[in-house]
Amino acid sequence: MPIKRVLKNNVTYLHLVEESYSPEKKKGETKIIKELGVEELPKPLNSMTQEFAVVWAEDRTLGNAVPFSERVIGQFPEADSGSGVILPCDIVPCGKFRNGAERWWCRTHQVHWGIKADLQQAVYSDGSIRCSNSTQPMHYKKNPLTINPDDYPGGIGIWAALPTAINTTDKLDIDSVLIHVHARPELQGKKTIDGNFPAVVVKSGESLPLFGNTSINIQRVVIAPPSALAYLEALINNLPLGTLYCNKCQHPHLDLGDFAKNPHKKHFCGNCGVDSNWSKEPIVSSPLKELANKLTKNPNFVESDRTLDLRDYQNCQFKVWSSTPAILWTSDLVQEMGIHVHIYQGKKKILDDTFGKVTDLDGSYLERDKLLAIMLDKSKKPKG
Fold first, then answer.
1. What pTM does this model have?
2. Who wins on pLDDT, 154 or 137?
């Protein structure tokens, strides 16, 4: 969530605010959720390091799906991945406020700069220009998995990994969205990558871009949990998806949060702060849409014809998921839909497959839509 800066008696107070999209008013709204206290002074720049990493914040376009560089400067925790990285501001001009004052935009933290409280902060603190979100900790992954689709002719599958719908094992479940990857060097060959990752980078070869327009060539796309989940929910809800390029900076636009759930025509660029980008029709914009359009070889789906009766495994433990459409699918084969099941006998996994019909222990049939609703609900619950 973004943070709003309010100046009172030369003291800067911070408020956690929630942004939402109002279909009735056809614009975004901001509501104060919590008072965070007085703004602290920033840590010195010499405490920052440069890392090969990707960074993202919850429901924000921060850590854009199309970053400028592989390396990020920030105050990184020692751990390889997690939460808590603090990034410096990157403030650029973006027009004027209604009163004619200059308006600026922080590309790092996705918030405007230039109101009275911002100016007072710059004057009365250490003189640095910082946005109201400058101390907000974010998620990160150092040395993320980087994939060149050309290296895997057998196909790549990338999904938003969600918690299980049913888990009777003693194995801990994931408690948030991760990125699940399958990669095969040969068609129908053995998977050389099969696992969950905090974030994934899809990268083109040295010369050919993944996609772009006449003004910008995209060679790296970051797939992080917020963009993956927003794209998945747009797919399963049949929302109109597209990739809108900013009319000023030509950067591909990424809708997240409520803006990814309500197709709209007017879009706010997270890269340069321009708020006058219009799509021809109401859409949810995501660079992942054009990435999929460019790299998908077979867009078709098939329902699994296999059946499973869990009553045949009374003394076993199992995990159950609803299958979901891939964010990226480069295989020549069709995607298989159904209910995915892992069955364990003790610590040994004895079954790992997708089924069109699954009978539960009580004799009822599991319903894929209900399983998916449980998974999505679990992925959005606060940790702890």
1. 0.84
2. 154
